[in-house]
């Protein structure tokens, strides 16, 4: 009898597995929902979350997670338009555009029932600019919110930052000068609030896991630690707009191998699987294949100084040789195959537009550095003569994401095949370790990316100012710095002149100095359950929003 039951059980399991495989992605969601009465979707992430503390997040994975469970004064809607979040309406702005008065809604609450107040923003912002916090993104306040630059330099106290709570529902922000993009900047995760009483009580334990946080966004977080490869989001019953949230739960798991993602999708264990390379090419004709271009730009970053000493990349001809020798078309077509497009500048296409003519920044500034193998070899020959070296070895820093490994191998092949005497040694480390090595500038060459924090060319170009904490390559050009300073100050209220200065700055960065080697504007290819709608991709700020997802 016991034996018969076992065989029956095995047979039943086999039938169930076959049904799941036959049905494809997403049907497990329907079954789970029908059994539990809850609407659930299963999504993937490309890497573990480095930080859930909005004071410390610096990457797209962290920003997406924070965007899911926290909310700022404003948020980006499905069309990337700024909408009131904790704020109940658009800000009131004084005549010289330097003082923003923002009224908060009275029904915004933390998940423990505590009201979200103006002081939550004052507390969070002061902590970010406080040098003791060592927040990498404190730079986003610099030159924007009054006194931020001097505070981060240790010349003023955090309490002198240009932000104050007039009362619980009124926040006043004073800027250094007019900032054309400030309204959209307030949607960015670094500007999220934090509850002072709760955070101070948690101390060093704050945000170490999902049990040591409170949330004011559409979802709360469950089952996460800073090493987790899976976690979940659950509908926040205290969220002011909970009536518009259609999902009860989102299950997330880290999947670095696209083959595993496809298998999980095919067996109904994922509702959306991100694709690249061979898998993207194989699935392009599938009915549930989707592809879109985002505003992340990938480039090779040249470290010109390591441990206080000039590196090989301090040589301009080395930089130009590498920047012109890689076939970007072949790269996006064969290695990625996910809708990415080659790019010959830093600022992406379909992102920002001339304030007068409405022409795309990328189109207007043109191709600043293009693939040209013959020219690259000329640069390389000159570089070796200037360096007095015939054999050169460079360490390439990569991480453990599958696409990153393939990209490193492709770039290694392109460089070694086409530049005589060059040897590329690939150093592969975990994703979070690569971020740390980048932060401490312990690398020679790496594949890097930048996603816009707000909708303006300066969000890209400002990264490479001499004093930017995100420069991390020791690039410096006084003329470049001067142009960006003009764009941020004297030209802040002169849109067309400011635009032309930013065009000129990009030409210096890429065409003249080749501080980096632009490669491609990122495309996102995926298999998505046709029954799931509302998965939103943003062109700036947090890469994705989940609050509009529905499952039918």
Automatic annotation (TrEMBL):
<dbReference type="GO" id="GO:1904680">
    <property type="term" value="F:peptide transmembrane transporter activity"/>
</dbReference>
<dbReference type="InterPro" id="IPR030678">
    <property type="entry name" value="Peptide/Ni-bd"/>
</dbReference>
<dbReference type="Pfam" id="PF00496">
    <property type="entry name" value="SBP_bac_5"/>
</dbReference>
<comment type="similarity">
    <text>Belongs to the bacterial solute-binding protein 5 family.</text>
</comment>
<dbReference type="GO" id="GO:0043190">
    <property type="term" value="C:ATP-binding cassette (ABC) transporter complex"/>
</dbReference>
<keyword id="KW-0813">Transport</keyword>
<dbReference type="InterPro" id="IPR039424">
    <property type="entry name" value="SBP_5"/>
</dbReference>
<keyword id="KW-0571">Peptide transport</keyword>
<feature type="domain" description="Solute-binding protein family 5">
    <location>
        <begin position="81"/>
        <end position="469"/>
    </location>
</feature>
<keyword id="KW-0732">Signal</keyword>
<feature type="signal peptide">
    <location>
        <begin position="1"/>
        <end position="21"/>
    </location>
</feature>
<protein>
    <submittedName>
        <fullName>Oligopeptide transport system substrate-binding protein</fullName>
    </submittedName>
</protein>
<dbReference type="InterPro" id="IPR000914">
    <property type="entry name" value="SBP_5_dom"/>
</dbReference>
<dbReference type="GO" id="GO:0030288">
    <property type="term" value="C:outer membrane-bounded periplasmic space"/>
</dbReference>
<dbReference type="GO" id="GO:0015833">
    <property type="term" value="P:peptide transport"/>
</dbReference>
<keyword id="KW-0653">Protein transport</keyword>
């Amino acid at each position: 009898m016991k034996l018969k039951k076992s065989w029956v059980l095995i047979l039943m399991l086999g039938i169930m597995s076959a049904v799941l495989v036959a049905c494809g992605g997403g049907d497990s969601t329907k079954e789970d929902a029908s059994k539990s009465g809850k609407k659930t979707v299963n999504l993937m992430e490309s890497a573990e979350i480095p930080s859930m503390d909005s004071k410390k997040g610096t990457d797209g994975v962290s920003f997406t997670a924070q965007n899911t469970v926290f909310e700022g004064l404003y948020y980006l809607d499905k069309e990337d338009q700024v909408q009131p979040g904790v704020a109940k309406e658009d800000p009131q702005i004084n005549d010289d555009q330097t003082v923003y008065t923002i009224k908060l809604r009275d029904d915004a609450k933390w998940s423990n029932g505590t009201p979200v107040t103006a002081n939550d923003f004052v507390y969070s912002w002061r902590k970010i600019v406080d040098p003791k916090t060592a927040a990498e993104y404190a730079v986003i306040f610099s030159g924007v919110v009054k006194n931020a630059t001097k505070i981060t330099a240790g010349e003023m106290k955090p309490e002198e930052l240009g932000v104050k709570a007039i009362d619980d529902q009124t926040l006043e922000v004073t800027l250094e000068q007019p900032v054309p993009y400030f309204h959209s900047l307030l949607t960015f995760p670094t500007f999220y609030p934090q509850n002072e009483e709760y955070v101070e009580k948690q101390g060093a334990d704050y945000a170490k896991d999902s049990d040591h946080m409170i949330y004011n966004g559409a979802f709360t977080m469950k089952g996460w630690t800073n090493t987790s490869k899976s976690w979940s989001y659950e509908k926040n019953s205290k969220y002011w707009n909970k009536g518009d949230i259609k999902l009860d739960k989102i299950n997330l798991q880290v999947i670095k191998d696209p083959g595993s993602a496809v298998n999980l999708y095919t067996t109904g264990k994922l509702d959306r699987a991100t694709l690249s390379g061979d898998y993207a090419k194989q699935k392009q004709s599938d009915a549930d294949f989707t592809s879109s271009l985002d505003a992340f730009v990938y480039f090779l970053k040249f470290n010109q100084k390591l441990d206080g000493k000039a590196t090989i990349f301090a040589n301009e001809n080395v930089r130009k040789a590498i920047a012109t020798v890689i076939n970007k078309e072949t790269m996006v077509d064969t290695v990625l195959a996910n809708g990415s497009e080659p790019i010959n500048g830093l600022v992406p296409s379909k992102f920002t537009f001339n304030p007068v003519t409405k022409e795309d920044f990328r189109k207007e500034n043109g191709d600043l550095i293009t693939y040209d193998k013959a020219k690259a070899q000329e640069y390389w020959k000159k570089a070796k003569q200037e360096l007095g070296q015939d054999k050169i070895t460079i360490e390439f820093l990569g991480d453990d994401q599958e696409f990153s490994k393939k990209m490193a191998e492709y770039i290694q092949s392109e460089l070694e095949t086409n530049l005589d005497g060059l040897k590329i040694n690939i150093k592969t480390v975990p994703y979070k370790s690569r971020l740390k090595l980048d932060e401490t500038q312990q690398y020679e060459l790496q594949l890097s990316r930048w996603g816009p924090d707000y909708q303006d060319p300066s969000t890209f170009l400002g990264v490479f100012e001499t004093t930017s904490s995100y420069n991390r390559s020791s690039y410096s050009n006084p003329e470049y710095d001067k142009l960006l300073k003009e764009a941020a100050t004297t030209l802040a209220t002169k849109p067309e002149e400011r635009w032309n200065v930013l065009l000129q700055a990009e030409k210096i960065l890429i065409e003249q100095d080749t501080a980096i080697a632009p490669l491609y504007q990122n495309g996102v290819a995926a298999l998505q359950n046709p029954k799931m709608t509302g998965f939103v991709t943003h062109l700036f700020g947090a890469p994705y929003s989940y609050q509009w997802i529905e499952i039918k």
